[in-house]
Specification:
Layout lengths: L9 H6 L6 E2 H9 L1 H13 L11 E3 L5 E3 L3 E2 L1 H8 L8 H17 L6 E2 L7 H11 L3 E4 L7 H14 L5 E3 L25
Parallel strand pairs: 5-6
Antiparallel strand pairs: 1-4, 2-3, 6-7
Helix pairs in contact: 2-3, 3-7, 5-6
Length: 194
Amino acid sequence: MLLNPEATFELARRIGADGPGAPIGEVFSFLSGLYFRGKLTYARAFGNRPSGSGVSTFVITTDRGLLPADTLIRREDLRSFAAVDIASGDERYVGPLRRDVTRLARELDAATDVILLGSIATGKYADILIDTFGERLRFPVDFVGRGDMSRGGLLLRCAEEGRQLEYQPVVGAVRHGKRPPKLAPARSRSRGSS
C-alpha cells in the first residue's frame, strides 16, 4: 500500500516523492499494526536514558542499523529496507547494526540495561545485541511463548496502565516456551457524557 505511487491517503503522500517524509515509528506502526504500535507506545512510556540525555527509543532496520523512532523516512527507504533479508545474516543488515550497537554501548553507562522489545525466539536481533551488551540486554519475561499480536496487545495495555513489565537477561533465558493464556479483554474505557 505505502509503496504504491498512486496511493493518496495522508501517510502515503507524506512518504511519497514530493512529501516531507514520516517518522519511522509511525510508518512501521502502520505496516505492522498492533505489534509495532504496542512496542513503540511502551518504549515511549517507559524508555529513558540516564540523565535524560540522548535518544532512548530505537528501531532496528534491515540496512541502516538503529534509527531513532522519530527519524523521517520516505518510500525509497522502505524499498531499501525490503531489499535485505535479515534472516540470512546479510552483511548489509549485520554491519550497520553492529556499528550502531557498538556506538550506543560506548555512550551508555556500564550499569544501564538495554531492553529488547523485538523477538528473542530467533537470533536475528538478540545474538547481535548479546555480543555487545551481554547480560545488560534484557527482555520482558511475559514475551516467552507469545506471538507478535499478543506481545503488541500486552505492551499497549501495560503502557495504558502505567505498568512496566518484569525484565530478565536474554543471556541464558528460555526463549521458547508454553503459550501463556490469552490476555483478558481490555476493560472498556468509561466515556464522559455529552
